[in-house]
């Protein structure tokens, strides 16, 4: 059958629009996932929820309102790290740094979610400022006895375990937690520079002071605090990476050559194929490599090389890859809470891809040519897997899609709210009726990303299986950037 030119064109346009429609309908709703990923942080809040504060996670109310009293200081606020009721500052500060980096890199793409991102950051930085400024010569680094807390299953609102206060000082150093706190405050100072200048200055001034302490009094907080932080958040990688990370963020915030000279003096050349709350080497190198790729400063070439060595260890087709992938295509680093590594590394992939695109830069892993698109495709595959494109067809973000984890390892989510059950639930009262039940959790912790499936892509959705079913702030903080990136490019 013959077609006229007009018919051919209209048919082609119809087919093109139909194909595009199918693609869009089949892809993930990144904008929805982004909004939910930030909503999760409301469910992790500690402290007093100020009247009039938008609190969409309505089953959470005031908790930990006397935190710090044991040391005669105000340490209210901040976040519970995961499904427990303890405030561990090392992962909390990393969470804050990653949320801030996301806001810095992807501010425009965050769109209407930028104010929510800033609110999530400020809830943490208000607390971190208290920890850094309450007592001269001390940095408070945690509240709540983790050993006592982990023997209980009770709502944050009912907490009756010891709210022990932990700190580091010149005689009990903690360069790791201090370096990360300095990074968080410095990164956040950039976020608030245009919206609250005085707050930004306070953050940066405090970051400098905390980092001076980290440099001057070297030592790991794991050695100083022992069972108060180990094995929960031991600094397994040592503290050199946090000194590198803190100095990198202070250099980004100030452009002061003092921090660059310090970075060079560290000689931190450890090879790595991981990025997490514990190990910051890869993140610092990507951030420093920006100076070469975006600012064309050739003095930063060694950091660019280190960043690309890291990418070559991640890419599945690279001859230097040291990264496992599940049959369904998920990056698999460690069996305990694997998605924390997936979200953090995906952040580095999208961010480095963005830097590469600025200068049309490419690099090689052996005979594999790596372009900006190479990294973007891998990051998108990881994000899409988390959101439901996986063998189990399950979204690992609670409340996103129709098939998501219903029995997450999280006290507030698994126990009835104060509205539903006004009577206090003691330390062990929650175990039998709520922890061990096969019933779904009564409260939906919208946006929470759990630890994820095993290396065979299987997820049992069992509350007792914390290594797979527990959400954490640092899992979510790292995915905000990639979600904004893909929401902006969709």
Describe the structure.
This protein is mainly alpha-helical. Helix 3 runs parallel beside helix 6, helix 6 packs antiparallel against helix 7 and helix 9 runs antiparallel to helix 10. The two termini are 37 Å apart.
Give me some keywords for this one.
globular; two-stranded antiparallel sheet; mainly alpha; disordered N terminus; single chain; 490 residues; 18 helices; three-stranded antiparallel beta sheet; 50% helix
Write the layout of secondary structure elements.
Blueprint: H1 5-26, H2 30-43, E1 87-88, H3 89-110, H4 114-133, E2 139-143, H5 146-149, E3 165-168, H6 175-191, H7 197-216, H8 221-225, H9 240-254, H10 257-266, H11 281-293, H12 301-314, E4 324-325, E5 331-332, H13 339-359, E6 363-365, E7 368-370, H14 372-387, H15 411-414, H16 431-435, H17 466-469, H18 473-489
Antiparallel strand pairs: 1-2, 2-3, 4-5, 6-7
Structure summarized in a few sentences:
The chain is mainly alpha-helical.
Give the number of DSSP strands. 7
From the alpha-carbon coordinates, what is the Rg to the nearest angstrom?
A: 23 Å
Cross-sheet strand order for the largest sheet: 1-2-3
What's the SSE pattern? HHEHHEHEHHHHHHHEEHEEHHHHH
Our count of helices gives 18
Largest sheet: 3 strands, antiparallel
Poorly predicted runs are 1-26
> Roughly what fraction of the amino acids lie in strands?
under 5%
Can you give the helix content as a percent range?
40-55%
Mean pLDDT: 93
Shape: globular
Alpha-beta classification: mainly alpha
Give the N-terminus to C-terminus distance in angstroms. 37 Å
């Amino acid at each position: 059958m013959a077609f006229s030119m007009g018919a051919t064109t209209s048919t082609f346009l119809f087919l093109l629009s139909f194909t595009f429609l199918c693609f869009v309908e089949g892809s993930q709703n990144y904008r929805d996932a982004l909004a939910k990923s930030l909503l999760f942080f409301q469910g992790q809040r500690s402290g007093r929820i100020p009247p009039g504060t938008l609190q969409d996670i309505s089953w959470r109310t005031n908790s930990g309102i006397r935190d710090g009293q044991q040391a005669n200081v105000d340490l209210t606020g901040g976040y519970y790290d995961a499904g427990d009721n303890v405030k561990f500052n090392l992962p909390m500060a990393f969470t804050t740094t990653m949320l801030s980096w996301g806001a810095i890199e992807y501010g425009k793409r965050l769109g209407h979610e930028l104010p929510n991102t800033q609110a999530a950051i400020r809830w943490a930085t208000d607390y971190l400022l208290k920890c850094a400024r309450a007592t001269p010569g001390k940095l408070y680094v945690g509240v709540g006895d983790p050993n006592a807390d982990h023997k209980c299953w009770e709502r944050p609102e009912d907490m009756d375990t010891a709210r022990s206060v932990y700190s580091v000082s010149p005689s009990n150093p903690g360069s790791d937690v201090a370096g990360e706190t300095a990074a968080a405050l410095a990164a956040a100072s950039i976020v608030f520079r245009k919206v609250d200048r005085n707050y930004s200055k306070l953050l940066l001034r405090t970051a400098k002071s905390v980092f001076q302490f980290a440099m001057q009094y070297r030592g790991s907080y794991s050695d100083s605090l022992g069972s108060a932080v180990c094995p929960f958040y031991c600094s397994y990688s040592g503290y050199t990476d946090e000194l590198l990370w803190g100095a990198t963020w202070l250099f980004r915030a100030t452009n002061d050559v003092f921090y660059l000279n310090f970075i060079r003096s560290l000689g931190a050349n450890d090879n790595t194929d991981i990025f997490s709350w514990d190990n910051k080497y890869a993140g610092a190198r990507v951030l420093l490599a920006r100076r070469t790729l975006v600012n064309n400063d050739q003095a930063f070439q060694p950091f660019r090389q280190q960043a690309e060595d890291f990418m070559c260890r991640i890419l599945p087709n690279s001859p230097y890859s040291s990264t496992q992938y599940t049959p369904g295509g998920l990056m698999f680093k460690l069996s305990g809470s694997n998605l924390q590594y997936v979200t953090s590394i995906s952040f580095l992939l999208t961010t480095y891809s963005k830097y590469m695109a600025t200068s049309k830069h490419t690099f090689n892993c052996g005979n594999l040519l790596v372009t900006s698109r190479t990294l973007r495709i891998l990051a998108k595959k990881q994000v899409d897997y988390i959101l439901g494109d996986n063998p189990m067809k399950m979204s690992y973000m609670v409340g996103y899609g129709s098939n998501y984890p219903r029995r997450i390892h999280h006290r507030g989510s698994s126990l009835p709210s104060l509205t539903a059950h006004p009577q206090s639930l003691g330390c062990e009262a929650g175990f039998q009726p709520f922890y061990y039940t096969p019933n779904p959790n009564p409260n939906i912790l919208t946006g929470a990303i759990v630890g994820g499936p095993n290396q065979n892509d299987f997820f049992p959705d069992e509350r007792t299986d914390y290594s797979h079913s527990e959400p954490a702030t640092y899992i979510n903080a790292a995915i905000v950037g990639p979600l904004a990136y893909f929401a902006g490019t969709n």
